[in-house]
Amino acid sequence: MIFDRSWYNRAGVERVMGFCTEAQVKRFLDLTPAVERTMVDSGIILLKYWLEVSPEEQTRRLEARITDGRKPWKLSPMDLESYSRWYNYSRARDDMLRATDTPWAPWHVAHSDDKRRARLNIIRHLLKQIPYEAQPRQKVKLPKRQEADGYVEPDYPFKVIADTVEVD
Cα(89)–Cα(76) distance, rounded to whole angstroms? Predict the structure, then answer.
């Protein structure tokens, strides 16, 4: 079972953007450890990751969404409003971690200015948390491909997509 950040929206976005009351935030933060304890006690492996990004990297990513013609769909008015509230989000994060980082459901923080590295580190960490028995693997060998046996590529005017994309 994987929850995205929506499980914690009450403690973050909803709080900072004024979509809920402080009493609702407090209730969420008070109840969440017990809910998570119940989940863990029922056998669920509950892993919580906080992807930490620096203010400089957040600025770089949002500017890229503004200037890169492939990314305008990734930028919303909410993103711009949230950007201006960096320290309110930081305070909300601190309160959330303080209230919900428990021995049975701890938070794991991943520095994520480098997205690729963060993803790989999280995957590695996640896999180490899940008990499993190694399964024997059979050696695989590609079979010999059949002979052409007279097959000739057709002289057909395929409508080929131009290869113009640059890949890092």
Answer: 17
Taking CA atoms, 38 is separated from 10, 29, 45, 49, 129, in Å, by 20, 15, 11, 19, 19
Which residue do the tokens 């950007």 mark?
83
d(CA 23, CA 109): 27
Q: Which residue is listed with tokens 């057709």?
A: 154
List the helix and strand counts (H, then E) for the chain. 6, 2
The predicted-structure confidence for 53-91, as pLDDT tens digits, reads as follows: 999 999 999 999 999 988 888 889 999 999 999 999 999
- 2 phi/psi in degrees, rounded to 5: -125, 125
CATH class of 5-128: alpha beta
- Tell me the backbone φ, ψ of residue 121, rounded to 5 degrees: -65, -40
Measured in whole angstroms, the distance separating CA 47 from the mean position of its chain's CA atoms is 13
Burial 66-101, CB ≥16 within 10 A → b, else e: eeeeeeeeebeeeeeebeeeeeebeebbebbeebbe
Kindly report, residue by residue over 132-144, the tens digit of the pLDDT: 888 999 999 999 9
How many residues in total does the chain contain? 168
Sequence-ordered alpha helix ranges (H) in 42-152: 55-67, 77-83, 86-100, 115-129
Q: Which of 47, 43, 56, 50 shows the shortest CA–CA distance to 2? A: 47
